[in-house]
Every structure is written in structure tokens, then in C-alpha cells.
Structure to design on (190 residues):
């Protein structure tokens, strides 16, 4: 690593090439829009560049990038919700889901489910949402501990709490949605 407060271009490029694909996948999972995910990732790497090599001093550059990416993703998700951006995606912005694309109805239901999950995720405290995002992005407990600057022994407990809070919020949202549907059905039946 460079000892100055400025990156050597080759060092920064190596970090970018190593980490960009994983970081952009994490951001895409949250935002579901390729252009927005790439913009958020560009901002993250610009922040890293401006901060200089001191960020990588302890060898924890991956952790810093994951932590920054999840925070930026959640912030963008919350900003989109405040602006009232709909979850409808154009064909070019569509991030394919796992599966064969059974039918348009199945795809629509999957996207509605994802929108509900993203809505609940945006309501969680930032650290809990980050934990869930990192775990469901495939990081191990050790990698999560590094990224979130936590003790390895506390990751499991914090994840369990985050999952419990997520489940409670999700179930509450589902009950409210069911009540709204029943009300709408009752109004249409009159």
C-alpha cells in the first residue's frame, strides 16, 4: 500500500477490479435497478478514492466497501420511497430473478414480493438491515464481523435479532395488506 494519502493508480485499480463485481451485486439486490446500482457503486468507489489508502491500512478494504455499499443502498431505497418511486421496472432495468420466468403472472407476483421485502428492509434500523443484506449476499459470519466491525461472537445474536424484527415487520405488513384487500373487496361488493 502507498504510504502517502493518495492512491497509486495501479493499487486502486486492483482494488476496484477485485471488489466491484461483488459490491455491485449487493447493491443490485437491494435496488433492483441496474443504472441506479451502478451509480451507487460509482459513488462508493469515488468515496474510497477520496479517502485515500488509509482506509485499506488494516487490510479491511472489503469490509469498508460492504459496509458503505449496504448503507448507500439502504439510503437510496429510503430516498426512492420518500419520492414515491413505484416498483414498476422497465424491461431494460429489470434484474432477472432466479427461475425460468414461468409466466408473466409468476414474475409479477415475485416482483411484488420483492417490493414488499424491500419496503420492510427500509423500515429496519440501518445496522440490522445491513446485517441481513450482508448475510443474504452470501457473506460468512467472519466476513460480516469484519464488514460491520463487530465481534465474531456477536454476529449470530445480532442476526437473529435482525431476522426476528424483520419477520415481525413483514407479518404486520402482510396483515395490513390483507385488511386493505378485504376492505376494497367489501367496498366493491356494495
Amino acid at each position: 500500500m502507498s504510504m502517502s494519502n493518495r492512491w497509486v493508480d495501479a493499487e486502486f485499480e486492483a482494488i476496484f477490479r477485485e471488489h466491484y463485481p461483488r459490491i455491485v451485486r449487493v447493491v443490485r439486490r437491494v435496488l433492483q435497478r441496474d443504472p441506479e446500482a451502478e451509480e451507487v457503486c460509482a459513488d462508493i468507489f469515488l468515496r474510497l478514492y477520496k479517502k485515500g489508502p488509509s482506509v485499506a491500512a488494516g487490510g479491511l478494504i472489503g469490509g469498508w466497501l460492504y459496509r458503505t455499499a449496504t448503507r448507500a443502498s439502504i439510503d437510496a431505497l429510503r430516498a426512492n420511497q420518500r419520492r414515491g418511486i413505484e416498483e414498476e421496472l422497465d424491461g431494460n432495468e429489470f434484474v432477472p430473478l432466479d427461475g425460468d420466468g414461468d409466466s408473466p403472472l409468476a414474475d409479477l407476483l415475485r416482483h411484488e414480493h420483492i417490493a414488499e421485502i424491500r419496503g420492510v428492509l427500509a423500515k429496519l434500523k440501518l445496522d440490522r438491515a445491513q446485517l441481513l443484506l450482508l448475510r443474504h449476499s452470501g457473506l460468512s459470519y467472519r466476513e460480516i464481523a469484519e464488514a460491520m466491525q463487530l465481534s465474531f461472537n456477536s454476529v449470530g445474536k445480532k442476526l437473529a435479532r435482525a431476522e426476528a424484527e424483520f419477520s415481525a415487520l413483514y407479518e404486520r405488513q402482510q396483515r395490513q395488506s390483507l385488511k386493505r384487500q378485504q376492505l376494497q373487496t367489501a367496498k366493491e361488493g356494495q
In short: Residues 19 and 62 are 7 Å apart (CA to CA).
